[in-house]
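Researcher: Sequence recovery benchmark, item below. Answer with residues only.
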């Protein structure tokens, strides 16, 4: 009996073991599921915090946007139709049969005259000082200037400011760029088309659409490849806005679905769609990504989003499917096919009719040339802007706070400078059978010191070494005007008719004798002071400078605006001092501005993203030389162009335009310079080689030719010929420096200070009419 009880106990024990194991398994499964649920809950809470923190905070790091100066139109302004139309096209204005909507221009040419009439519908713009509203107006251009500016009612307009061209930006570390647009400002056709093509049931689902996923799976399985996606717009936003390109189902697909649902829980459809419209990737420009439809419109069409036609909107919507695959520059046929598919959807959904469909499908892509879409169109100027901004702002602020930076660059002047440099350097290389000639150029306004154009290389798109700012080269004879200005600032001793010697000179310097010669290897004896500058004689300039004193000349150079060291050596008088073109421009601007010094600047205003002023760059003016002496100096520099080393300029420039300037050439013609100005524009040109080797180009044969090409096309204003108070013109004998007379041979018509006029008159050799007097009096009258 004992054995049976034992057997029975063993049997019961073995049967209960599986039950206890199953019970333990169920407990383990329960707690595992509980743990999974808990972890999922924690993970979902984490994802929820990620969704909310980014969506409710600062969604994007916005780049600082840099704008050129606006084109300001006013009565009497110097303007040619060709340059004006180039400016309008650069801004994306369309020449249509009417001007009924912003961004349109109607052009009318008067038969039998040079008058051109433009009917323009401007776009308006938020400037630093006020908001310009969109308006219709009429502009009449004739004989190189604005002859009329009136509104629709026929009333004269004092000033119309067109919106400025965006010329670049400072982009975040992720290189994403976008222009934010509100849903209310979106063209309705774009919004309707986007939903019809990308997510027809956007308003009905809750972030994820199971039906769309099943439909996409069926289409893809049937076709044997990926033909259709099942992601909603909300899922696409999550993928672009929050997640990486990881393809794992656990690392992307599941988080994408959860976050899409969370987005729909917390935010309205309008908020989600608006964010998507500003986030979606639409292309690439170098290292910069093009995000959002507003920037896409500018990138591909150079148009504001609200001005796009039906076929252009369809192209943008089509790019959502794959901006690289449908790139309209690289794959135009593929892009057009995709665009037409979108147009078909628009017709199917009743967004356009048959006539609109046919017209849109027949339209060309209409995109701008690929090079024109690059963000930094003027790299040398942008380099200068960045350097000046870095004095006042942190790098991170420039790349994330959406600052709006208004600069002084004039696209019209810049484009003309680029054209002149490219054309003339290529011609010079062919003419002299040479190569590797480089160039740089600086153009400023006269009086305001605003930098209107800047070239750091003969190739205006080159983004490397900026010669305008960093190439310090000997300036040669460009220094001579400052020697003569030093003399003219001593009116009791010097005027333009004062006789100076151009005989050979030699001075001991550094243990060696310095004996400069004239370029023509001739001595010219006693000459009037103005001629030493106009003809760029080395001997007379050196003698005058040594008489004045090296310290006095060095002080004049510093007063004119040069901030570097001036070596007080005799060779300095003939330009053995290294300067950049920008530094030369700063000094010459003081001469062009009648002795008033102002620092050259590239920035006008800086605003926050919401339009509040951050930094103002006021105009600083300081009278450093007298009006009387600078007027006389300008007159002598006009002689340089009329009869001296720069006289070839008037082979191309109309004689009625009064200009002043100075050529500069260094030893072995390693550097070719020209600095010249009108009453409105100052331009400095340098040509040479980076390795400092000799060139076949003198200042007159090289840099002057670029300058002439530039100035002959630029609408500009002549120099003022009316002398300031205390200065008047009279005849001066060019042999004695005494007063002459109109009929006396050798008499020259020169401006003299009234309180320091010569007291004696020269003996008169009656020689009939004086040709020099006739020329200059014609110009003055």
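Model:
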């Amino acid at each position: 009996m004992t054995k049976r009880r034992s057997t029975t106990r063993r049997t019961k024990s073995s049967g209960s073991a599986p039950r206890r194991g199953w019970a333990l398994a169920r407990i383990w499964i329960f707690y595992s599921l509980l743990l999974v649920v808990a972890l999922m809950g924690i993970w979902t809470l984490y994802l929820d915090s990620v969704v909310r923190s980014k969506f409710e905070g600062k969604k994007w790091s916005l780049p600082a946007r840099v704008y050129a100066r606006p084109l300001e139109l006013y009565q009497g302004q110097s303007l040619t139709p060709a340059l004006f139309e180039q400016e309008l096209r650069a801004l994306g204005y369309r020449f249509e049969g009417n001007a009924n909507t912003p961004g349109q221009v109607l052009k009318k040419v008067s038969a039998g005259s040079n008058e051109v009439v433009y009917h323009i519908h401007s776009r308006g713009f938020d400037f630093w000082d006020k908001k310009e509203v969109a308006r219709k107006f009429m502009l009449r251009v004739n004989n190189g200037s604005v002859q009329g500016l009136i509104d629709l009612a026929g009333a004269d307009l004092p000033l119309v400011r067109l919106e400025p061209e965006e010329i670049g930006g400072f982009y975040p570390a992720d290189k994403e760029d976008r222009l934010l647009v509100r849903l209310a400002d979106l063209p309705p056709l774009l919004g309707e088309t986007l939903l019809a093509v990308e997510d027809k049931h956007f308003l009905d689902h809750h972030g994820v659409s199971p039906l769309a996923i099943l439909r996409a799976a069926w289409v893809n399985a049937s076709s044997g490849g990926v033909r259709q996606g099942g992601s909603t717009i909300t899922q696409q936003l999550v993928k672009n806005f929050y997640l990486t390109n990881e393809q794992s189902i656990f690392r992307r697909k599941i988080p994408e679905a959860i976050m899409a649902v969370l987005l729909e829980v917390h935010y309205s459809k309008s908020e989600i769609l608006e964010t998507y419209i500003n986030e979606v990737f639409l292309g690439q420009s170098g290292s910069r990504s093009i995000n959002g439809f507003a920037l896409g419109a500018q990138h591909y069409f150079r148009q504001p989003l609200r001005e796009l036609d039906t076929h252009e909107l369809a192209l943008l919507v089509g790019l959502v499917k794959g901006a690289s695959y449908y790139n309209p520059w690289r794959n135009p046929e593929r892009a057009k096919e995709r665009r037409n598919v979108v147009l078909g959807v628009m017709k199917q959904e009743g967004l356009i009719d048959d006539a609109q469909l046919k017209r849109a499908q027949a339209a060309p892509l209409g995109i701008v040339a690929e090079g024109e879409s690059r963000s930094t169109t003027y790299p040398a100027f942008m380099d200068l802007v960045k350097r000046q901004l870095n004095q006042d702002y942190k790098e991170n602020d420039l790349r994330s706070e959406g600052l709006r930076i208004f600069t002084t660059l004039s696209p019209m002047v810049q484009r003309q400078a680029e054209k002149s440099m490219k054309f003339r350097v290529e011609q010079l290389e062919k003419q002299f059978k040479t190569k590797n000639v480089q160039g740089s150029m600086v153009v400023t306004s006269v009086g305001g010191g605003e930098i209107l154009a800047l070239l750091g290389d003969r190739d205006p798109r080159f983004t490397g070494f900026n010669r305008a700012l960093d190439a310090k080269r000997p300036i040669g004879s460009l220094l001579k005007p400052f020697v003569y200005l030093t003399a003219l600032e001593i009116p009791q001793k010097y005027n333009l008719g004062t006789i100076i010697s151009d005989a050979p000179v030699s001075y001991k310097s550094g243990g060696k004798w310095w004996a400069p010669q004239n370029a023509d290897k001739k001595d010219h004896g006693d000459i009037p002071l103005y001629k030493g500058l106009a003809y760029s004689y080395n001997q007379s300039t050196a003698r005058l400078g040594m008489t004045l004193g090296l310290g006095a000349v060095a002080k004049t150079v510093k007063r004119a605006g040069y901030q570097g060291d001036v070596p007080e050596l005799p060779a300095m008088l003939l330009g053995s001092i290294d300067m950049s073109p920008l530094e030369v421009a700063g000094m010459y601007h003081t001469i062009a501005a009648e002795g008033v010094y102002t620092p050259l600047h590239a920035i006008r205003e800086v605003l926050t993203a919401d339009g509040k002023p951050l930094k103002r760059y006021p105009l600083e003016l300081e009278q450093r030389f007298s009006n009387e002496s600078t007027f006389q100096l300008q007159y002598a520099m006009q002689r340089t162009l009329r009869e001296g080393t720069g006289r070839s300029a008037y082979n191309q420039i109309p004689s009625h335009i009064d200009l002043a300037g100075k050529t500069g050439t260094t030893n072995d013609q390693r550097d070719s310079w020209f600095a010249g100005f009108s009453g409105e524009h100052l331009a400095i040109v340098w040509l040479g080689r980076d390795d400092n080797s000799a060139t076949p180009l003198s200042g007159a044969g090289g840099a002057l030719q670029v300058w002439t090409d530039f100035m002959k096309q630029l609408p500009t204003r002549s120099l003022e010929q009316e002398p300031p108070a205390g200065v008047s013109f009279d005849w001066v004998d060019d042999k004695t420096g005494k007063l002459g007379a109109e009929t006396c041979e050798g008499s020259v018509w020169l401006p003299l200070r009234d309180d320091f006029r010569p007291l004696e008159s020269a003996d008169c050799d009656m020689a009939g009419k004086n040709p020099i007097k006739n020329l200059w009096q014609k110009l003055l009258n």
